[in-house]
Specification:
This protein is an alpha+beta fold and 383 residues long. The chain has a domain at 2-42 and 101-167 and 261-353: FAD/NAD(P)-binding domain, CATH 3.50.50.60. It has helices at 12-23, 51-59, 101-111, 156-160, 229-242, 289-310, 317-346, 350-365, 367-377, and strands at residues 2-8, 28-31, 46-49, 66-69, 71-76, 82-86, 96-100, 116-117, 122-128, 131-136, 141-149, 165-181, 189-195, 198-204, 212-220, 248-250, 255-264, 268-269, 272-274, 280-281. α1 packs parallel to α3 (101-111), α1 runs parallel beside α6 (289-310) and α6 (289-310) runs antiparallel to α7.
């Protein structure tokens, strides 16, 4: 059976690509190895959507319950260095919108439901004249002009296409959980603290109780050698939140996962392309992972739709290379910037601590630099 486009991965990015192409009259089949999502009562994973991503979702008819972050405060926990970003500085309604991951996944999968083939996985990829042939785990075969890998960090499409991945282990573990704020912390303010106990982020979430927050805490593994996650959090959370004059209590279970990044040497070849986590992953400190994925998907859809309108082959090397050129270098810069931040704020060298504290204070006074940083983080600039 032949389909113009086959998308491997029925997650958020894969479903977005399907819906965006559908709006332009380009049909696609989504292949998803999992089963339909069933949202549990322990739905605690959150995502931070920048203004560009939020707009892309609205354009395909996805509206979410979300908390609007109007101010972001960044503190060096080992010095008096501080920097503050506000939506007013760039004339935006919000710097980001914090939503529940499962809510977005459920809504976007429901909207793409008729196109998703669940419990299916690609086991082989081969070239057939101008088409790409794929074989599924049930031995059925499909042919397509374009295969899009949106199938996560361990992407079968990337592996079967022999794309090479470079990885970097941060030697950190991330803890994420929901918390209730006891003091008068503004529910439109997100806070981030860099300290010798790790990188601690506190983000407001939309809830009946306005003092509910999502926490993402990235901790060096060496601090966890002689303890477990529950004890580490219990012993350090008050000291961490006191740095922002706050006090919180846990309101959920704790999810933990190791932190590393990866980046493919190539995003495409004739008839095959990868997007989002299939192509790259990044440290969660800036909340940019999902936004980089949407930026990839936006540009890829632009190139596919333009080629389709002009009558070009949507899986041609020329079309897919334009997408790679527009996205790969930007993603590489973002990954290196995050590595730089982690190296700078993870150092215990006394001289570096002094310099980074002074640097934050200086940066906070330079308006045009802050505006430049916010605009890039918001996704408002694209090649």
């Amino acid at each position: 059976m032949e389909h113009p486009v086959i998308i491997s991965g029925g997650g958020i990015i894969g479903c977005y690509v399907h819906l965006r192409l559908k709006q332009a009259g380009i049909l696609s089949q989504v292949i998803e190895k999992g089963s339909p999502l069933k949202v549990s009562s322990q739905n605690i994973r959150t995502i931070s959507l920048n203004p560009s991503t939020y707009k892309l979702l609205l354009e395909i008819g996805i509206e979410l319950e979300s908390a609007s972050v109007k101010t972001i405060k960044v503190s060096d926990g080992d010095s008096s260095g501080r920097i503050q970003f506000t939506a007013d500085e760039v004339n935006e309604e919000a710097l980001s919108h914090v939503a529940m991951f499962d809510e977005l996944l459920e809504k976007i999968q429901d909207k793409a439901l008729n196109a998703i083939k669940y419990e299916s996985e690609i086991t082989s990829i081969s070239k057939l004249d101008t088409l790409t042939k794929i074989t599924l785990n049930n031995n059925s075969e499909l042919q397509t002009s374009l295969l899009i890998g949106s199938d996560g960090r361990n992407s079968p499409v990337a592996k079967l296409s022999n794309f090479v991945s470079k990885t970097n282990d941060y030697k950190q573990t991330a803890f994420t959980f929901l918390a209730k704020e006891k003091s008068d912390h503004n529910n439109s303010t997100a806070s981030q603290i860099f300290s010798n106990k790790g990188i601690f982020a506190l983000m407001p979430i939309k809830h009946l109780n306005e003092n509910m927050f999502s926490v993402v805490w990235s901790v060096p593994n060496e601090l966890l050698k002689d303890t477990n996650k529950d004890n580490f959090i219990a012993e350090n959370i008050d000291a961490m939140t006191s740095k922002i004059n706050s006090k919180i209590t846990l309101e959920s279970n704790i999810i933990s996962f190791p932190l590393s990044n990866h980046h493919l040497d190539s995003y495409m070849k004739e008839g095959v392309v990868v997007v989002g986590d299939a192509a790259h992953s990044i440290h969660p400190l800036a909340g940019q992972g999902i936004n980089l994925g949407f930026a990839d998907a936006d540009i890829l859809c632009e190139e596919i739709i333009e080629a389709f309108k002009k009558g070009y082959s949507i899986g041609s090397y020329r079309v897919l290379k334009k997408y790679e050129i527009r996205r790969k270098s930007i993603n590489e810069i973002m990954l290196k910037a995050m590595d730089g931040f982690i190296g700078l704020f993870g150092s215990n060298n006394i001289y570096i601590k002094v310099l980074r504290g002074l640097g934050l204070k200086f940066f906070n006074k330079i308006s045009f630099m802050k505006v430049f940083f916010i605009n890039h983080a918001s996704g408002s600039h694209k090649l």
